[in-house]
Design brief:
Layout: E1 4-8, H1 13-24, E2 28-33, E3 44-47, H2 53-59, E4 67-70, H3 79-97, E5 105-109, H4 113-116, H5 145-160, E6 163-169, E7 172-173, H6 183-197, E8 201-202, H7 207-211, E9 213-214, E10 217-218, H8 219-231, E11 238-242, E12 248-249, H9 250-261, E13 265-266, H10 275-279, H11 283-293, H12 300-303, H13 306-313, H14 324-328, H15 337-350
Parallel strand pairs: 1-2, 1-4, 2-3, 4-5, 5-6, 6-11, 7-10, 8-13
Antiparallel strand pairs: 9-12
The structure holds NADP nicotinamide-adenine-dinucleotide phosphate.
NADP nicotinamide-adenine-dinucleotide phosphate (NAP) binds near residues 34 and 110.
């Protein structure tokens, strides 16, 4: 039987890279979003709002996917609201598809906040988990929308008889424009501003992040793991961490990024210096840079998600991820982290997002 993928959140950093990988592997691929673009050749757009059940039903009327890749979330003011909204996204979709009985596997993308707690608990929680983070770590006491999304998948799997996999990336590095969290693009925008103005490229995070070990997840390796787990017998009904497979210290990578853009940098010095503050008055400046270099997006807030970069780089502990589980089962893809960043910077230049 032909594999038919439904990528939910197809314009996002995870979803768009996954859609490309599926299409290049020969899958018939539908891409769902409220504003699905058709920039990806071969992707069949599905325009629907996951919070609107009737709209979702109509949009999916003639589509019977075999594989669901759930790569979306909505940002709310509190974790309580996150839980309500983000579990409804999953539940609504799986309820609408249930009568079709076409779904064989659901792959859900969550993240390391599974182990660290949600943003609002990040630095406040008294006990921090042991690193490297491992899938076997039990759920935290603190409420978490990832747990609610997982539970919605487990319930539907029990009811409808499909298999599932959960994928937990660290910070995702990859190409996407206008999505909620994109550290790679945020740093490229900041570095471009430094280059244009002669400002120093200041590390916005904590001492623990500057000095400690870290890893990240290229959106392309995440896509490969999603497809591997969804199609191999051994990848079913399990949760998997997913990172590039190398480790680094930000004090090493920050200098490499500064070298790439040929700018001066400053590392961690005495205190956290948030990027959100650093960029808060730069909208007009970005407009002039965009005009001068003929760039396609002059809205800084659409490109840079400084709040998210600050949260990830401001963590009070080093954070790195154990990859043993999927490796032992045969998923052996590797991605160089420096290449993740420089490939992205190259693509951002090519697409006229940065000078
Ligand atoms: N980005 C990271 O660095 C990172 C790191 C670790 C974990 N994660 C996790 O990975 C998962 C996927 O996140 P992401 O960063 O890939 O997301 P993203 O880039 O922000 O993309 C979200 C996608 O969902 C769509 N969408 C949002 N609300 C929708 C709705 N109501 N109905 C239909 N489509 C909707 C968006 O398009 P429209 O706006 O057009 O609808 C977009 O295509 C999340 O759980 C996130 O927490 C992300």
């Amino acid at each position: 039987m032909e594999n038919i993928a439904l990528v939910v959140g197809a314009t996002g950093i995870t979803g768009s890279n996954l859609a490309q990988e599926l299409i290049s592997n020969g899958w018939k691929t539908y891409g769902l979003a409220r504003n699905p673009n058709s920039n990806i050749s071969g992707l069949i757009p599905v325009k629907a709002d996951l919070l609107d059940k009737e709209n979702l039903k109509t949009a999916l009327e003639n589509i019977s996917p075999t594989h669901i890749f759930f790569t979306t979330w909505m940002r709310n003011d509190s974790e309580e609201e996150n839980i309500k909204v983000n579990s409804a996204l999953v539940r609504n979709l799986l309820n609408v598809l249930s009568p079709k009985k076409s779904v064989q596997h659901v792959a859900l993308v969550t993240g390391l906040k599974h182990y660290l707690g949600p943003f609002e608990a990040y630095t406040k929680s008294g006990s921090l988990p042991e690193t490297p983070l491992r899938e076997e770590q039990t759920r935290l006491e603190y409420p978490n929308f990832y747990y609610a999304q997982e539970d919605a998948v487990y319930e539907a799997a029990e009811r409808d008889g499909f298999t599932w996999s959960i994928h937990r990336p660290h910070t995702v590095i990859g190409y996407a424009v206008g999505n909620l969290m994109n550290m790679g693009t945020t740093l490229a925008i900041y570095a471009s501003i430094c280059k244009e103005t002669g400002r120093k490229f200041i590390f916005p995070g904590s001492s623990a992040q500057w000095n400690g070990l870290s890893d990240v997840t290229d959106a392309r390796i995440l896509a490969k793991q999603l497809i591997w787990a969804s199609t191999s017998e051994v990848g079913k009904n399990q949760a998997f961490n997913i990172t590039n497979g190398d480790i680094f210290r930000w004090k090493w990578l920050w200098e490499k990024i500064a070298d790439y853009f040929q700018i001066e940098f400053e590392g961690f010095e005495n205190e956290i210096r948030p990027l959100e503050q650093e960029l808060q008055n730069d909208q007009e400046l970005w407009e002039s840079i965009a005009e001068k270099h003929n760039l396609i997006e002059n809205n800084l807030s659409k490109l840079a998600s400084a709040w998210h970069t600050d949260l990830d780089l401001g963590r009070p502990i080093e954070v790195m991820t154990d990859m043993t589980n999927s490796r032992k089962l045969g998923f052996t893809s590797f991605q160089s982290t420096l290449d993740s960043f420089t490939d992205l910077f190259g693509k951002l230049k090519e697409e006229k997002i940065i000078p």
